[in-house]
TrEMBL record:
GO cellular component, one term: cytosol
Localization per record: Cytoplasm
Lineage: Bacteria, Pseudomonadati, Pseudomonadota, Alphaproteobacteria, Hyphomicrobiales
Main location: cytoplasm
Name of this protein: Diaminopimelate epimerase
Length: 301
């Protein structure tokens, strides 16, 4: 068995993704390889989407997701769109069903190149998010950062979109907050036994929300699909918007939007947005040593 596999450097609204083809192999991308790849500026990423042979009947692939610190992620909406684009280009197909540790994801590539992913139903039960304390209503939990009498952030909405999320509602530009300082503290707060994705969300109209996210296991990210879904659902759940909104991802480069619909008839969350291929190469999934397509010498040691 060859030591190397093919991979593509892609992005979803700037969310840095490595799509790694592990089909036909029993091994996995190791945490050590993920850390090594992330340490190189050319392969730095938010998530690795490793495509494995299907495990469940009726699915096209099993997707193993790794964060940039080598930890496992349950869901990645932007990364799923990248996988769809890669497989659509390879096969000519438009419709796919994937299995992840968070469940089954259905996705379709549209004629205009945008991709919709059915992210499933959101979870609001405190012990399934999970939270360390019981809350009857997780649309607003008791958590704050900053002075008690004048907190900087407070009372987030909490939910799971396959992974834990806390949405803090703010009244001014989300880029004006020092999320690089607050993010690590909140991600690792005792309230979140499995850590959490931390999102700042500003409602700008009844149909639009602007977000910025500190991603669990990855840090400040240009975009996060499951966070966008969580912000949209939480906005509707708290009466700030309706069930169909545009998420303006403030940190995306270039600036971009995701269309999110929390369907009323089945409570599934449908995320629609773009994906972009950047370049391809091969890598060793055990070490993270990699080569860019068309080169013979290793680009990383």
């Amino acid at each position: 068995m060859s030591a190397t596999v093919e991979f593509a450097r892609m992005n979803g609204l700037g969310n840095k993704i490595l799509v790694v083809d592990m089909r036909g192999r029993p091994d996995k991308v190791t945490p050590a390889a993920a850390v090594a790849l992330n340490a190189d500026p050319q392969t730095e990423f938010d998530q690795i989407m490793a495509i494995h042979d299907p495990k469940a009947e009726g699915t096209d692939a099993f997707i193993d997701i790794l964060n940039s610190d080598g930890s496992k992620a349950q869901a990645c909406g932007n990364g799923t769109r990248c996988v769809v684009q890669a497989l659509a280009a390879e096969t000519g197909r438009k419709v796919f069903t994937f299995q992840t540790v968070a469940g089954i994801l259905n996705a379709v590539e549209h004629e205009d190149g945008t991709i919709s992913v059915d992210m499933g139903r959101p979870v609001f039960d405190w012990d399934r998010i999970p939270l360390a304390e019981e809350f009857h209503d997780t649309s607003r939990i008791e958590l704050q950062i900053g002075p008690i009498d004048k907190p900087v952030l407070h009372s987030p909405s909490a939910m799971s979109m396959g992974n834990p999320h806390a949405i803090f509602w703010v009244d001014r530009d989300v880029m004006s907050y020092d999320l690089a300082r607050f993010g690590p503290l909140l991600e690792n707060h005792p309230m979140f036994p499995e850590r959490a994705n931390i999102t700042l969300a500003q409602v700008t109209s009844p149909t639009s929300v602007t977000t910025r996210t500190w991603e669990r296991g990855a840090g400040l990210t240009l975009a996060c699909g499951s966070a966008a879904c969580s912000a949209a659902v939480s906005a509707a759940r708290t009466g700030r918007t309706g069930r169909k909104v545009t998420i303006n991802v403030a940190s995306a480069k270039p600036p971009g939007v995701l269309s999110i619909e929390w369907r009323e008839h089945d409570d599934h969350v449908i995320m629609t947005g773009p994906a972009e291929w950047e370049w391809s190469g091969t890598l060793d999934p055990s070490t993270g040593l990699w080569w860019r397509e068309g080169t013979r010498e290793a680009e990383a040691q």
